[in-house]
TrEMBL record:
GO cellular component: cytosol
Pfam families (alphabetical): AAA_19
Keyword annotations from UniProtKB, A to Z: ATP-binding, Helicase, Hydrolase, Nucleotide-binding
Superkingdom of origin: Bacteria
GO biological processes: recombinational repair
Species the sequence originates in: Ornithinicoccus hortensis
Residues involved in ATP binding: 226-233
Protein name per Swiss-Prot or TrEMBL: AAA domain-containing protein
Amino acid sequence: MLVTAATHDIVAAEIAREQDHVDRVYAELAKAAARVELVHAEGMARGQTDRKGTGDPREEELAGLFERDALVYNASKRRASLEYQHEGLVFGRLDLDHGSGDGSDAADREVRYVGRLGVRDDEYEPLVIDWRAPAAAPFYRATPADPQGVIRRRVLRCRGEEVIGVEDDLMVPEAPEDIVVVGDGALMAALTRSRGARMRDIVATIQQHQDEAIRAKAAGVTTITGGPGTGKTVVALHRAAYLLYADRRRFESGGVLVVGPSAAYTAYIERVLPSLGEDTVTLRSLGDVVGGVTATRFDSQEAAALKGSLRIRTVLGRAAREPIPGAPDTLRVFVAGHAVRLDPPQLASVRRQVLRHHHRNSSFEAALVALGEAAWIQVRQGEREEFLDKFGDSGDVEAFAREWWRPVDPREVLLWLADRDTARRLGKGVLSEEEADALAESLTVATSTGEWSVADVALIDDLAARLGQVVDLPSEERGFYEIDELDDVSQYGVSAIKLGRDTADLAVTPQGERTAYQRVVQDPMERLLAGSITAGDEYAHVLVDEAQDLSPMQWRMIGRRGNWASWTVVGDDAQSSWPDLEESARAREEAFGRAPRRSFHMTTNYRNAKEIFDYAARLIRQYVPDADIPDAVRDTGVDPVEQTVAQADVAAGVTAAVAELGAQVDGSIAVITPEKWRDALAGLEGEHDGRVLVIDPLSTKGLEYDATVVVDPEEIVRTAPGGARILYVVLTRAAHRMHVLQVR
Ligand SMILES: Nc1ncnc2c1ncn2[C@@H]1O[C@H](COP(=O)(O)OP(=O)(O)OP(=O)(O)O)[C@@H](O)[C@H]1O
């Protein structure tokens, strides 16, 4: 729109008009906040004086009022904590015509305001409608072809409580005389803005096709597909907020789980739902889905592929049935005057027998009984019942069983596979020797660094399901799941010597006991086994982002948390870092069960300037000819800058690019570099007032920046799991500017 002095005045008048309404809304909220304080104080006083019985209708009334006001009160507090650059509490206005539809008769008109939450005045008249309410749907659904009674849709831009702009879309061919239309359209204004470090909500500019996915029915599985930057993530998050609104009882009490690829991703999206007024959703990255373990490290491609594939389940199944390394392997006792001796083969047969019917960690009693039966077969003298009673009462037998059949932590069982021979033996027929060695090797990285890998987490979860919840041992022993902190890792059968660790670094008391307080805190093994694995929660809705990257084992892990859930699944196969999409699809289908499916396909890229996206699209077409390529809607007239630098000049080249970009964009700048150049570039982190971030290719999944410097794309293709697909991810992260530095 051409901005002249006259249009400037018109816009200012429209802003002032909207400000009046916004002021009324905030005044109403302030009144509600004061009222709730009063009711609260009164309720407390009543509770202390005449609180008798529960049937007092006044009290119920008060409770109802209190509850309603409390919602408003909390909402007003939440509003106060919103970042100022968020669209305000009231962000939309609809001018509707309930008559002929063209707005010609002002008597048929209705003005409806749309906001983050509903607010009514004293007469209970709505001042603002919650964006998720059915009455707000035309704000998102109306188009000139199908205006749905809307004459004008207006987006209000606010900073705090102040209206700073309005952007209109006209839905009828010609505006009625008294309806002013200003602005260039809210969507373009939103897309051109600087991005900042956190994803923002898009309530003010949700597009029609996005709204359909957001408001789709909860039941079953809703799939959202589309190329990079098509709003899949942001739509899915708004869908979570919508589901909470539409069926709060079910989803707030049952829980909503949002799973994304990395901790950087969860940090990036964590503000979206709170800004929509929802803070009951659980956000998890794939590395911290299992309570008690947090992993951010990635395995080598080979190890990750191995650990993600369903073949590994056979190996884990075998490991879960293994005897505990270092535990006694022979039982020698005197019972009722008979010498009993059970050797390893007999004990192995007892173990197989027990595990046929029981989970290992809850079968101490069953193991004792089975030992008794095996002992009786050997003795067969006297009364059977009497022998078994004595056997069961024997302190020696119990002492043996407490070690031989103690509860095992799934993490410790996984670490048994860090031993090459064990990995080869348990991998026989499933893994080649090279693969078994790679598995052992990758777990040795864990034991030396003290950090689990992201792929390990799904294996720990699988083992936890196999081993079962620990049932307390009789007498004073504490169950494993109650142990808050390990006192001694050797109690978990991870033999220090076997893993090449020097036991001397564990502090020892004069009594010869190791204590929690005297240990060397930095011990890697201790870090791996710290805390306890908590039993998996189940959720009523599970939302999986970047679903194309989940390995089959990760699908099983998520599936355990969504046995009864409805699902929203978001992904784009062309951005996948997982090599076997078919095996993943099978595991995914298993997780979903037979629930009905619906899918939405997004075709518009809202993130990247057209010039940047075209550059990326050219690349991916070479590698994935049938990639799902969206249309980018916004051009800047500025092509990505491509440069070639010598190895010795990488740091200088990147520094220069960052300096240039720092002057061109206001917001975030990411230097995306393969491991090879990471150390050389680490110093750039935090430059330009903290706007510069140095990040590895895989961790950029799902994220976006105002500008990016892509370092050594060839090396990214060579080293990232997913190769060119990850380069495609990397090349589609910048909203406004991109520099690509080839290294020769
Ligand atoms: N209707 C909209 N209004 C304003 N911004 C939007 C809209 N839809 C999408 N965007 C913006 O487009 C960008 C890309 O969205 P999002 O990250 O959800 O895409 P994606 O499809 O998940 O991308 P990728 O697959 O590359 O991770 C975000 O900045 C988002 O806020």
